[in-house]
Amino acid sequence: MPDHDRDHAPAVETRALRRTFAAPRNRPGAAVEALAGVDVRIERGEIFGLLGPNGAGKTTFIKILTTLLFPTSGEGRVAGHDVVRAAGEVRRRISLISGGESSGYGSLMVRECLWMYSQFYGIPAAIAWPRVDELLAVVGMTEQAHTRINRLSTGQRQRMNFARGFVSDPEVLFMDEPTLGMDVNAARALRGYVARWVRAKAGRTVLLTTHYMAEADELCDRLAIIDRGRVLACDSPAALRRQVQGGQHVELEVSVREGDGTGLPSLDGITAAWGAPHPERGTRTLKFRLPPECPLVDVLRQLEAQGVRVQGVATREASLEDVFIAVVGRGLEDTEVVK
Amino acid sequence: MSPARADGRPGDLALNLRATWGRMYVRVVGSAREPTWIMSDAVFPALSMASFVLLYRALGAPRSFESLAVLGGIMATYWINVLWGMGAQLYWEKQSGQLQLYFIAPCSRMSILTGMALGGIFMTTTRAIFSIAVGFGLLGVRVAPFALAPLLLVFVVTMTALYGLGMTLASLFLLYGREAWHVCNALQEPVFFLSGLYFPLRALGALGAVAAGIVPLGLGVDAMRQVILGPAARGWLPVRVEVAILAVLAVVFLILARASLRYLEALSKREGRLTQRWQ
After folding, report:
1. pLDDT at res. A104
2. Which candidate from B34, B104, B107 shows the least CB-CB separation from A66?
3. Which residue of A has its CA nearest to B16?
4. Residue in B19, B29, B270 closest to A119 by CB
5. Model ipTM?
6. Which residues from chain B sit within 8 angstroms of residue A60, using beta carbons?
7. pLDDT for res A109
8. What is the pLDDT confidence band of residue B18, given thresholds at 50, 70 and 90?
9. A70: which chain B residues are within 8 Å (Cβ-Cβ)?
10. Do the Cβ atoms of A285 and A322 come closer than 8 Å?
11. What average pLDDT does the structure give for chain A?
12. Which of A3, A20, A62, A68 to mutate to test the interface with B (most CBs of B within 10 A)?
């Protein structure tokens, strides 16, 4: 691709991207198809989210785009460069933040450690040090700048690694569950920074994987819902929510007998999914969209007939979780579907 | 430094030199921040050296044998660093999650390994100074004046070959060394023996000396002893020959290290496991 075309190429583009993992020799079995032909186009300047449950293929997708993994077939491009044939050019333009990461060397101070990472991208010292100080302020670690890494708490270490992702000022930033395990306030502050960072300079792009619905909703311009290696829906959060508007979104708090977590009743014409359990009350939340033609009382009767006691009823606006349930057929935290 | 590229990013030379310095910095700084090294890396290795010096003295061996042992003790610390600080390093980097950050960085992987090696040499030299102080200061071992330049030349060639071997081991350990700890242990003492650290290399006999020639440590020690002690070193081969072999080994190991890293990276991308921790 000529340089001029690359300047106008999308930030990320994949065509029929496929990745299969062979079964390990010591555990023979079927090969695992992590990506089953993914086509995605992410424009420059976008914050794009990949939403999916564990094992959906999100991390595999990111690993291929960050040149850590070969695709089995198909094509992936970052800033117009092929991730297999021009991996070096891709690497000059990207950075990766993984949630729960604990990289860095214990004998270094926080400030030194971030500087060290900047050197792997060849950033001159005159640019690197001020940028490091700025990022430490962003993640609220100015006071820890001269603290050795092996004396940081887990949360501080996560924030330092978050700062590491920005130290090379990448064109395309990949974030794989970046706020995993972070406290709510820190995660919110860092989401705010990501949004400001993208808007601050034309062409900066973020590809974010998460299974936090609120994070995806708050941050992303567009979202792809991915499950079992396939993109099932792709649009803006608002447009996705519109797809499931109509009818009521209902949450029932139902009593669950001990050891009877899977014996839920079937509900005619309704796709439902488990929500949060409430062990202190011995209940769980059952979520579903109630079609306009189906009265709630009928559902309650069906549940009653199957021995399920309903202790509370709530209705609310459509959320991304409803979209996810409608598209994937189960909740993000669930492995089971009630139909 | 090479000029920046048209897109404003640093050129390859600047990128890789900075990456080397960045990785080297960890060891340069780390060596000063962990005072426990004084015991583990300086005092304990110096004890082995001191035992041999005292043994030779008690037996009434020629005084040159004491110098042989001191030089061997100094070089032993470099081998320990090559094994534990180079060979096993990528394995530890993988377990800590650091390896994938190296693999997505645009710098050459060799620049990272070079940084590790230069940092390791710096760090180990600070330990070696302690051994020199013990050997020549505390134990009173004496050597006649010698030419410094040839010694430095032999030292540099030996270090290049030795750390080139370390770079190769780094990749091999990552590929095959799930139990890197045990592999390091298994290589440490036999190499000490085969390198003739505390006795003249020729004492191993022709076959042993040839075996020792595969590991640069033995040849390097033998050549340095000859530069310092002359004929009293009871050298195996002439210094020039040993330096030539070391130079060839340095080139071979550096090429091997580069090739094995490339193979490792390709394998990692194909199988998707080498950047995964605990696999």
Report:
1. 85
2. B104
3. A122
4. B19
5. 0.86
6. 272
7. 95
8. very high
9. 269-270
10. no
11. 86
12. A68
For residues B131 and B49, the answer to whether their CB atoms sit within 8 Å is yes
Residue with tokens 């960890």: B26
CB atoms B10 and A124 under 8 Å: yes
| Cα(B124)–Cα(B220) distance, integer angstroms | 16
The CA distance from B254 to B166, in Å, is: 9
Q: Please compute Rg for chain A using Cα positions.
A: 23
Tens digit of each residue's pLDDT (9 = 90 or more) over A86-99: 999 999 999 999 88
As a whole number, the mean pLDDT across chain B is 86
What per-residue confidence (pLDDT) applies to A121? 96
pLDDT in tens, B141-174: 888 888 889 999 999 999 999 999 999 888 887 7
B254 neighbors B162 (Cβ within 8 angstroms): no
pLDDT tier, A339 (very low <50, low <70, confident <90, very high otherwise)? very low
Nearest CA in chain B to A62: B104
pTM of the model: 0.83
Q: For the domain with range A3-241, which CATH number is right: 1.10.10.10, 3.40.50.300, 3.40.630.10, 3.20.20.70?
A: 3.40.50.300
What are the sequence ranges of the domains in chain B? Answer: 12-271
Q: Rounded to whole angstroms, how far apart are CA atoms A147 and A141?
A: 10
Region B54-71: mean pLDDT is: 90
User: Would you kindly state where each structural domain of chain A is located, as residue ranges?
Assistant: 3-241, 244-328
In this complex, the residue of A95, A119, A124 whose CB is nearest that of residue B22 is: A119
Q: How far apart are CA A256 and CA A259, in angstroms?
A: 8
- The CA–CA distances, whole Å, from A264 to A304, A306, A338, B202 equal 11, 8, 7, 81
- How far is Cα B164 from Cα B121, in angstroms, rounded to an integer? 12
What is the CATH architecture assignment of A244-328? Answer: 2-Layer Sandwich (3.30)
Q: How far is residue B118 CA from its own chain's centroid?
A: 10
Read off the pLDDT band of A334 (50, 70, 90): low
Using alpha carbons, select from B88, B154, B153 the residue that is nearest to residue B120. B88
User: Residue A296: which residues within 8 A CB-CB, separation 6 or more?
Assistant: A248, A250, A290, A313
- Interface probe with A: pick from B95, B101, B178, most Cβ of A within 10 Å: B101
Stated as kind and residue range, the H or E segment containing A298 is: helix A296-305
Q: Which amino acid is at B58?
A: A
For chains A and B, CB pairs below 8 A equal 99
